[in-house]
Design a protein that fits this description.
With about 300 residues, the chain is mainly α. It is built from 15 helices and three strands.
């Protein structure tokens, strides 16, 4: 007799938290992460998470540090538990007791224009050249590249439609003539291979019904960087960083770059002023001004020849 397996029932507490997240518009990935972090707390306590005390949360955070958890993991846990205790349980006293870590600032790795050209040229095939071309030519995040559909290309208005990007926001990205031609080359090749379908994914995965995975795009960038002899640590997001930095070096207004990147805050876009070599080179050193002043004084003090 065949056995029938049923999914474990969802507890009322978890269901309440899921409803709270849904009503506040949290994305599916965020919801999944928040549930996972709360389950880790419950496993540490070996009892339901809503029974935790302030001392329990302190012990849990100490445990994370001693276990060598990364800064993003710790801060992700803090965000999840602050939501759980502050919103679902309405225990803001416990939510306030959680301590986030300050993430050390690291300037984003950026390719030169010449390196970006070499990397795209070394991409493993037209499909990946087109996908990486979108990451660099339009500044899209890797997940946004992966989830583009054929209908998202607006060749009349020269725009790429990004649906439900980070923060559940839709936006338009730029579509340059060269990028459009690259995408048309891939479309023709994809049609020849039989993997392009009306209203389907622009970059299908191993099955045409699924989009390409972000892992495949990461692997393609690393293969291309190795083939191009680029020794920097690069990934798809490096192309997005390079897009923003190169626009800034072309004197594009930073507010326009903010819109193209889909940043909610200008402060996020401003990090590229720290890596733009042209921005740094355009600033006059105070030492140069002093030397110039001293030279002027010396010329003034010297008798005429």
């Amino acid at each position: 007799m065949d056995s029938v397996t049923t999914a474990a029932p969802i507890s009322p507490l978890r269901q309440r938290m899921q409803h709270d997240m849904m009503m506040r518009g949290l994305g599916p990935h965020t919801q999944k992460d928040y549930i996972r972090h709360v389950r880790r707390l419950a496993a540490f306590l070996d009892r339901p998470p809503d029974t935790a005390s302030e001392e329990d949360l302190r012990r849990f955070q100490v445990h994370q540090h001693e276990a060598g958890a990364s800064v993003p993991t710790i801060n992700g846990t803090v965000s999840a538990l602050r939501f759980f205790f502050g919103v679902t349980l309405r225990r803001r006293d416990l939510a306030r007791s959680l301590v986030a870590m300050r993430r050390p600032y690291k300037a984003p790795e950026v390719l030169s224009v010449e390196e970006a050209a070499r990397l795209l040229e070394a991409a493993p095939g037209i499909k990946y050249k087109a996908a990486l071309g979108v990451a660099y030519g339009a500044g899209l995040r890797v997940s946004e590249v992966a989830h583009l559909k054929i209908d998202d290309i607006d060749s009349e208005r020269m725009l790429l439609r990004v649906e439900q990007g980070k923060g559940q926001r839709d936006r338009n990205a730029m579509l340059s003539p060269h990028l459009l031609e690259l995408l048309r080359m891939w479309w023709r090749e994809g049609k020849r291979r039989g993997v392009m379908f009306p209203h389907g994914w622009l970059f299908p995965g191993r099955s045409y019904t699924d989009p390409i995975s972000t892992r495949q795009l990461h692997r393609a960038v690393q293969e291309a960087a190795e083939a191009a002899g680029i020794r920097k640590r690069v990934g798809p997001h490096t192309l997005r960083h390079s897009f923003a930095t190169h626009l800034l070096e072309q004197d594009v207004d930073i507010r326009i770059i903010q819109v193209l990147l889909g940043h909610a805050k200008l402060d996020t876009t401003a990090i590229y002023t720290k890596v733009s070599t042209r921005t740094i080179q355009a600033v006059a050193s105070p030492l140069d001004r002093i030397i110039a002043l001293m030279d002027d004084q010396e010329r003034t003090a010297s008798p005429p020849g």
